[in-house]
Design a protein that fits this description.
Elements lengths: L3 H9 L5 H19 L2 E4 L1 H16 L11 E5 L26 H8 L3 E6 L11 E2 L3 E2 L15 H8 L5 E6 L5 H7 L2 E4 L19 E6 L2 H11 L18 E5 L9 H16 L3 E5 L4 H19 L12 H11 L3 H19 L7 E5 L12 E4 L2 E4 H5 L4 H6 L3 E8 L5 E8 L4 H15 L9
Parallel strand pairs: 2-3, 9-10, 9-11
Antiparallel strand pairs: 1-3, 4-5, 6-8, 7-8, 7-14, 11-15, 12-13, 14-15
Helix pairs in contact: 2-3, 7-14, 9-10, 9-11
Length: about 450
Amino acid sequence: MDDLQSQAADLRARKVSSRELVERSLSRIERIDPKLNSFITVTAETALAEADERDRELARGFDRGPLHGIPIAHKDLMRTKGVRTTAGSKIFADYIPRRDAAIVIKLHQAGAVSLGKTGLHELAYGITSNNPHFGTIHNPWDLARIPGGSSGGSAVAVAAGLVSFATGTDTGGSIRVPASFCGVVGLKPTFGRVDIRGVLPLGFSQDHVGPLTGSVRDAAIAFQAMVDDSTGYVPPANADLGGLRIGRPKNFFLDCVDPEVEAAINAAFRLAAEAGGRVVEIEVPDMETLRGAAATCLLVEAAAALRPYLDRRSDFGADVLALLDQGKNIAGIDYIEARRTRRRIGRDFARLFERVDCVFTPATPITAPRIGQTTVKICGVIEEVRTAVTRFTRVMNALGLPAISIPCGFSRSGLPIGLQIIAATRQEDLLLRAAAAMEDAMSWPVRHPQL
């Protein structure tokens, strides 16, 4: 699958039609996705009809922009009019919305052609994408490993070349974790920057919507189509780090990290310095306390969002049900204190951007665990997979800051490693510039999963 920019250029050069692009994607889904299980619903007939309309529009000289005629997919948490929206849940297995989510409308207006709905961890409440109702989603780099979650299907669809862009949601790392594990780019914008109306809720104070793509510039194109206040910024071909102050945390973010991940991140800092960036040592505020506050808020908000269905206990997977039960038992005073903690530490973290323009961290402390693995051992410490994997991402949901995961290498066993880049509120343009410059600087030979 060509990248989004190449597809758009070929469409306008009349080298290919939107229908041909859609047919290629549908054929690849039919051949490859049985191994991966990245889609829950494929809307082939509707997609072909939309592609034909996009071709007619281009023939009349009506161009909706860079996404015109491009096949995409939506995480099955976005309401889609007339197309079932399951949230990966038995409870919503037959739910057919009467209207589209705001983001679905926006991308449709931008000319994108939806091929269907991608799979996810049940109710977007987990990081493995081992779904008890719609089946396990497999990492294309190693089918025995998880793709991460909850946006696992979207990341897999992009990594496997089924589409060049898929939507995702991120409440504790659900875009960036799958991006890291699957070797793609995943952007979590500033909280509230992308409209979440019509997206089935999980944690109202931490839910974000963003793109998963094969490259940073593709992510920039997708992001600009997703927001109301677009700057139209896409990093130029000669993006560089000149003048950018890059924060290197002395604490938390490089504590207890797999040695191969640590080596890849250290190499990224060296490349950043060679590319003109100025690496600045920083000490971040109390991220461990912030991580606990973020988890408390999510536990309570998820239980509140799903309260109407909590009497249907047998319809939930065991892991999600345990989290919902935990959330019901948290006292209101603890929830309020957690919100206060987030605000306090948020003010402390914001002051870092007086000294730096962005911060580099690992996206995840490990590469993708095996399917069914419940614990991991890092630096001699045993942790639950869920808490270990979201250690560096969840805190950015608590703060609402924009963050992106980009590929920054592979382990010896061939598994992708992700670099997380963080910027100040609403500084997505700066974030994308830094990410594109790093993507260019790393410039290793293109690798694709061997499916």
